[in-house]
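Regression report. Comparing outputs from two consecutive submissions.

Submission 1:
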Amino acid sequence: MGKKRKSRGRSKGGKGRSNLVQCANCGALTPRDKAIKVEKPVSLVDASLARELRKMGTFIPRVKTMKYMCVSCAIHNRVVKVRAREQRRYGPGEFT
């Protein structure tokens, strides 16, 4: 039987079972090493208020929020793209 992916779709290596995380979109339980991690900066101030404060020269910090998504939701929300069969076999950077 051929292997579809070199990493078997995960990044755990030889660690055994990994913890499950809940998908932020659909709530499905996915292994942490398989889930796609999305880091998004979020402002704690309302957008219209932030625009006025920026005009006055105020620095408004943004907090990074971490979300985990299952593979199907990440593809649906265009966080990751569907790759061709040969590109799937190797990691994101190496195409041989």
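Submission 2:
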Amino acid sequence: MLIKIVLVALLVFVVFQLFRALYLMLKNDPNQASMSKHLGRRVMFSVVVMALIILALAMGWIEPHQRPY
């Protein structure tokens, strides 16, 4: 159950970073941080989420659904 909570928290953080980048893009303030910093974080945490899912499946912490047929 803990692994699922961690995955959901990471996915929420990914969406948060996406909206932060959107806000910076629309604001267009030269004194603010770069939009690419937030997009880079989003990509990095997306890779972490995918690696954590693959690791959790390999270790047996989570189980995929059975095939429907």
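Expected: both submissions complete independently.
Actual: both completed, but the second showed a warning that disappeared on reload.
Relevant detail on submission 2: Residues 2-27 form the longest helix (26 residues).
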